[in-house]
Design goal:
300 residues, MetI-like fold, 2 domains
Length: 300
């Protein structure tokens, strides 16, 4: 009887294992199909104008005039591409030092009450909707820039400041995890050689964890590059290459959200917007590739 019972248990475990493998394989296959379908759909729409010859690829990428409703339509997306990159880079430059300092404060300076104080704030920032960030930027940042600097307040600087606050939680969380995972014997060895706390942080901790910290920076930039609503509310949405941080500009995401609902499916303008979406997708792949490279370097 005991042998039959054990045999039934083994068969039951085998069936459960088989069902689990089939379910996991189905989920993975479904995920692959969804990703491939999305890439194919966006690529087919985004490349339609270039394949048909209605829009030149060089004019689209390097043209500075966006006038889809003119007698001679122009579909130059350089103002939007440059606006997206400029706002993203500025946001990363503003948020990265603040995030790294916050992570160091939580893990190295006062790891006890510092983490209890900052962790809830960071979690709160990550949970705030984008429209709230945009509304705060429109109510606080834009008037401040208008009263302090030349211009109307809306523009690249306002968009970068709003985005820098939005990506703070991402960079801070990744940096804090990287600093917390650092082996304790490295710091102890530095202290044993007579190094101070700041010498240990600047010469041992930061150089060792820099690849992982840069992973957080890249993830934050990916978040900033794909943000639409908050930037759209404060950047001005002007189809021109900005010559100043305080001039109105536009991004790929903002022009897509503003124009997609007013186009006809299959039209030249609609396909041009899909081309912008394709650029966004390609940049997402670039960010993912950079993250993988930094993770591999961190493991080495």
């Amino acid at each position: 009887m005991r042998g039959k019972t054990n045999k039934k248990k083994i068969e039951k475990h085998h069936i459960e294992d088989l069902v689990g493998r089939i379910y996991m394989s189905f989920c993975v296959l479904l995920l692959i199909v969804i990703i491939v379908s999305m890439v194919y759909f966006v690529a087919s729409k985004g490349l339609a104008n270039f394949i048909s010859g209605r829009v030149s690829l060089s004019d689209f990428l390097f043209g500075t005039k966006w006038a889809p409703e003119a007698d001679t339509p122009s579909f130059g997306a350089l103002p939007f591409i440059s606006g997206s990159f400029l706002v993203t880079l500025l946001a990363a430059l503003i948020a990265s030092p603040l995030s790294i300092c916050a992570a160091l404060f939580m893990t190295e300076i006062v790891p006890g009450w510092g983490k209890k104080l900052l962790q809830p704030v960071i979690e709160l920032l990550s949970g705030i909707p984008s429209v709230v960030y945009g509304f705060v930027g429109l109510s606080v940042i834009v008037p401040f820039l208008r009263d302090t600097f030349p211009g109307q307040g809306i523009g690249v600087a306002a968009g970068a400041l709003v985005l820098s606050v939005m990506i703070l939680p991402t960079i801070t969380s990744v940096a804090a995890d990287a600093l917390a995972s650092l082996p304790q014997n490295l710091k102890e060895s530095s202290f044993a050689l007579g190094a101070t706390r700041w010498q240990t942080i600047s010469r041992v901790i930061l150089p060792t964890t820099m690849p992982a910290i840069m992973t957080g920076v890249v993830l934050g930039m990916a978040r900033a590059f794909g943000e639409a609503l908050a930037v759209q509310m404060v950047i001005g949405n002007a189809p021109f290459v900005p010559r100043s941080l305080f001039e109105s500009a536009s991004t790929l995401t903002s022009v897509i959200t503003l124009s997609m609902g007013n186009t006809t499916l299959g039209s030249t303008l609609n396909n041009a917007l899909w081309s912008m979406a394709l650029v966004l997708m390609l940049m997402t792949f670039v960010f993912v590739l950079l993250v993988r490279m930094l993770e591999r370097r961190n493991k080495i």
